[in-house]
Design a protein that fits this description.
Elements: E1 11-14, H1 27-34, H2 42-48, H3 53-72, H4 79-88, E2 92-96, H5 101-107, E3 121-123, H6 136-145, E4 152-156, H7 159-168, E5 171-175, E6 190-192, H8 198-207
Helix pairs in contact: 2-3, 3-5
């Protein structure tokens, strides 16, 4: 899908873990316990397993790591202010995540000033669409918000967020993680080192 470079923005979608929330899932530990092959994501590995005891064990391990992370969750620097600022600008705000809805709701209990009710849409892997880096979750969020994907911004800290946003035709913002050396196949439209910077980027997009 070609990207419309006309000005304007209707919605901002956020990844959750590592973006709105401080990174909490121990992905290296999760991969070791699951025995994930190098270069493969834990979720994709679990989904590749045939039905049976091995799959049941892997799903239990994944659920345990996610639940432990949810109990430790706290807002990333500038996250709560960023969401409040965007809503004050009149923008729709959502979450698009590879996690389950239960995990997001539990994680947000650790946020002093945000709750699920503050988001206009939350799309998780519980929804019946392919997860990031496929564009389907972003397209679903845009459809539920009744906005065009090209007037939507996707903000995330990982390559799958940028890839999914690019493939959906959305404006992409990569929140840099100093501990992550992975490089997206497509350059994001904007690079930021903190969510504190997001407000200025959105204003620029709205005023261009």
């Amino acid at each position: 899908m070609g990207k419309d470079r006309s000005p304007g923005l209707d919605a901002v979608l956020f990844d959750f873990d590592g973006t709105l929330a401080r990174p909490a899932i121990d992905f290296p530990g999760l991969k070791r316990e699951l025995g994930v092959p190098p270069g493969m994501f834990a979720l994709e590995y679990v989904r590749s397993l045939p039905s049976g005891d091995e799959l049941d064990r892997a799903e239990d391990v994944l659920a345990r790591f996610e639940m432990e992370a949810a109990d430790r969750a706290e807002p990333n620097d500038g996250a709560e202010d960023a969401v409040r600022c965007l809503k004050e600008m009149g923008l729709l705000v959502g979450i698009v995540t590879r996690s389950r809805l239960e995990i997001i709701e539990r994680s947000l209990q650790g946020f002093p000033r945000l709750s699920p009710a503050d988001f206009d849409v939350i799309v998780t892997r519980d929804d019946d669409v392919k997860v990031k880096p496929e564009p389907d979750q972003i397209l679903l969020a845009a459809s539920r918000l009744n906005v065009r994907p090209e007037r939507t911004m996707m903000v995330g800290d990982f390559v799958v967020d940028v890839e999914a946003g690019h493939r959906a035709g959305a404006v992409t913002v990569h929140l840099l993680d100093p501990n992550d050396s992975a490089v997206p196949d497509h350059e994001p439209d904007f690079l930021i080192s903190s969510l504190v910077e997001l407000g200025d980027i959105v204003r620029m997009r709205l005023e261009t």
